[in-house]
Design goal:
The chain has about 350 residues and is of the alpha/beta class. Helix 1 runs antiparallel to helix 9 (about 250-260), helix 4 (about 65-90) runs parallel beside helix 5 (about 140-150) and helix 6 packs across helix 7. The longest helix has 26 residues, at about 65-90. The chain is about 40% helix and about 15% strand. It has one domain: Rossmann fold (3-Layer(aba) Sandwich).
């Protein structure tokens, strides 16, 4: 029965993926040329100049069309990401240890040395991947970079994902790990966060903590956060064919998010945290780029946090697509971001 429900959901997703609904008040924007960003570093401009223009049609065609295709695609990507993570950990002298906390797989990422400022601190990292990718060691790549650059211990949560495990499974797995970790580490000494789907889940977990009257983390990290999971923001339209990593919302993001949401409502704050109440939230570090499909999400959540009186540090980088600060790791932009994030953690963690 479960397999039948998933198959029917996939059919519904594929029927709508790539479809465009227009309205009389919509603007039609002419075709334009987009050069490499003049305000970006020379190193990042070189990357942009060597990157072909994103192909929207090809991105839509690559969307898996069945449960078997999703599983094969996820497995293939995980194999590549695992190899990349192991190589990066070796290069940066970060030890990866797989453990189990409350039935949930986690990866401890221990840098070669802890910096004095972070000896008692912990970064709880939640990987991205449109809620369907990032399983295993491959989901630790950004966390490895943070561990090495800041000299901080990182725990990366390998939460369960669709197609087999839709929401709220990921939130529940994160909460299981969190409630065990705070038995040994004070919440005020922990920063919680991740990129894209990981940032969404960090917000969702913090909202859940608040609803349960649990102590919140000392800080949050939101990288290119997905804060509403349907197509509403300007950037989801304007960055189509511009964001070199996401390409178009109407390809894998829309399909994967439909699998993730399952029977829950898109407007549920545990799905789209933009609709949550952020009174009393901890200081929050946000990062996005001017070509990021999630630029609108980041702008909207930043304003909502500020309206709630939350200290929110917004960092916007010229020419960056979704997650480029983690993908183009050796660029000046990425290194500057890591220094900014480290300083933010030092200021706010106890």
């Amino acid at each position: 029965m479960r397999q039948l429900c998933i198959a029917l959901l996939l059919a519904s997703v594929l029927a709508t993926t790539g479809s465009i609904i227009t309205h009389a008040q919509d603007w039609k924007i002419r075709e334009r040329f987009l050069p490499p960003s003049a305000g970006a570093s020379e190193e990042f401009r070189r990357i942009l100049s060597q990157t072909p223009a994103p192909d929207v049609t090809a991105a839509v065609a690559r969307v898996p069309k069945s449960m078997e295709e999703w599983q094969a695609s996820i497995k293939e990507q995980a194999s590549k990401d695992d190899a990349a993570a192991i190589e990066l950990a070796h290069t940066l002298n970060v030890r990866i240890l797989e453990e189990n906390i409350g039935g949930v797989t986690i990866h401890r990422l221990d840098p070669r040395r802890l910096t004095p400022d972070h000896k008692t601190h912990l970064f709880v990292y939640i990987h991205g991947g449109d809620f369907v990718r990032g399983k295993g060691i491959g989901g630790t790549i950004e966390g490895i970079g943070i561990a090495a650059s800041a000299g901080i211990r990182v725990i990366s949560i390998d939460y369960r994902m669709p197609p087999e495990f839709p929401a709220p499974t990921a939130m529940n797995d994160i909460m299981t790990v969190w409630q065990e970790l705070v038995k040994r580490t004070p919440p005020a000494s922990i920063i919680l966060g991740g990129t894209s789907a990981g940032a969404n889940l960090a917000l969702v977990a913090a909202l859940r903590m608040k609803d349960l009257d649990l102590a919140l983390p000392g800080a949050l990290f939101l990288g290119a956060p997905q804060v509403f999971l349907d197509k509403k923001g300007d950037s989801q339209y304007l960055m189509e064919g511009v964001d070199r990593n996401t390409v178009t919302w109407d390809a894998e993001p829309a399909a994967a998010l439909s699998l993730y949401v399952g029977t829950m409502r898109y407007e549920d704050p545990y799905i789209s945290p933009l609709y949550g109440n952020f009174q009393g939230f901890p200081p929050t570090y946000l990062i996005t780029g001017t070509r990021d499909m999630m630029l609108s999400d980041t702008a909207l959540i930043h304003r909502k946090l500020r309206r709630a009186g939350v200290e929110a540090d917004l960092n916007v980088y010229e020419g960056q697509s979704r997650g480029d600060y983690a993908v183009a790791f050796e660029t000046p932009e990425a290194q500057e971001h890591l220094k900014e994030l480290n300083a933010f953690m030092t200021r706010h963690l106890e």
